[in-house]
Amino acid sequence: MLNLPVFKAAAVQAAPVFLDTDATVDKTCALIAEAAGHGATLVAFPEVFVSAYPYWSWVMNPVQGSPWFEKLCKSAIELPGPEIRRIAQAARQHRVNVVVGVNERSRHGVGTIYNTMVFINDEGRILGRHRKLVPTWAEKLTWAHGDGESLRVYDTSVGKLGGLACGENTNTLARFALLAQGEMVHVASYISLPVAPPDYDMAEAIRLRAAAHSFEGKVFTVVSCSTISTEIQDAISASHPEAREMLARRNSAFSGILGPDGRVIGEPLIDDEGIVYADIDLSRCIQPRQMHDIVGHYNRFDVFDLRVNRRPLQAARYDDLADSGAADLDGGFEPLPEAPREARG
């Protein structure tokens, strides 16, 4: 008999402690505890929440922004590493599944960083990571490309869980690659982007993307977006005063939870910090698929053929390491070790 999970999800809308990795990890763990205290068993965090988004790339030229890039590289974390283990410990202690965005530094290059989502289950086990496939627009000055190895869906206590970061939620093929693996809960991580063109409503764009994925795939989508704190505005406008007004633009952040009909469940958050909660019953994903199951009977796989290259990208392949059974951990996804038992509370 099919028994699908019923649970409470939490979408965090908050700002990191700007470029302060340890303080942001502390904030992350505190927010996990707060959400768990309200009954959540899935907690989603914004894009690159640990511990900064490169807003300088939107308001400065590349030369002016280069010192900020160095700061970001120094504050980035490696996977596995002590920072993510602390978050995993909090997940285990409070029995929640966690998806958190981080700036991931390459273990083999201090100037190469990735926009990465980390998936952690309620036992504190790090299930895997997803590196953003294509950095968007000005983000290309900051992050390297991810690869298809990390397009994965994970079995968890809240069902089959997947996710994409910000603009790649517009990538139809990436979304389909997750749906085809049975995804039923999708985490979409975002940042507030007030520096978009003046006629671009960022909050509405985020909601629209989430609605499209939920409606097309008949899944639940948990949207978690960051905010821009006064601290961030002060730091960037100290050298570029004109940036303050740009970064203060409203209607730039949306966090909420959407059902398989594409509609928002409960009240979303616009711009302000907080946590959005919603009860999710995955059984609601069944009936809509009788009409449109795009990864099943409502498709023509004899006509369409999607191939996903899961070969990890890496700088070089060394035959002697391959022959000895060793692996280049930075060459792509390799399951990350679970948190040590003594760190699990």
From TrEMBL:
Alphabetized CDD domains for the sequence: nitrilases_CHs (cd07564)
Pfam families to which the protein is assigned, alphabetical: CN_hydrolase
Record's keyword terms, sorted: Hydrolase
Protein origin, superkingdom: Bacteria
PROSITE patterns recorded: CN_HYDROLASE
An example molecular function term from Gene Ontology annotations: aliphatic nitrilase activity
EC number: 3.5.5.7
Record-linked SUPFAM superfamilies: Carbon-nitrogen hydrolase
Biased composition annotated in UniProt, kind: Low complexity: 323-332
Residues covered by the CN hydrolase domain: 7-282
Matches recorded under InterPro entries: C-N_Hydrolase (IPR003010), C-N_Hydrolase_sf (IPR036526), Nitrilases_CHs (IPR044149)
Region (Disordered): 323-345
Family: Belongs to the carbon-nitrogen hydrolase superfamily. Nitrilase family.
Protein name: Aliphatic nitrilase
Species this protein is from: Achromobacter pulmonis
